[in-house]
Amino acid sequence: MSIYLGIDPGANGGMAALTNKLVYIQPLSNLTLQETYHLLQAWTMDEGKIIACMEQQDPRPTKWFSKEGKKWMSSILRSTCILYGNYCKMEALLVALEAEYVLTPAKRWQSGLNIKARAKKETNTSWKNRLKTKAQQLFPKQRVTLAICDALLIAEYTRREHLRNSGKNNQEEE
Fold it and tell me: For a designed S-S bond to 79, which of 8, 11, 85, 150 qualifies (C-beta 3.0 to 4.6 A apart)?
């Protein structure tokens, strides 16, 4: 049996695991590296092989033009540091657990779930609430929060892609 793991490594991210019986959800913000490892290890012992997808991240320094108007200034935000810390930590744990995993851009997993791209004028709050609504539709028995909605959607994308690529009908593992 497989466990489909979705990871949103953001500063307020989380991870979600889907099996044919259960949904496991865990925000990343409150876990140490050891706690995360033991949690993933426990899920693996309970359910089997991990097939994971983590949202791919690219460097995003914040840039602005100096007050004097003479040069561009750059800074790395605290949230960006947390994101990359989580990203590296989670990738290392997936390797340690010998998980099958891929790094996937957000646009790919979103389009794989038929989520329309964020509109140019759409606020961040509106966008995140749209993702949360989609996750709640897919998992009506779960209490979906903003912290874990992306992880749930990524886990569902992972499950669908794995079943599609392995030639299985989605009904076989449900």
Answer: 11
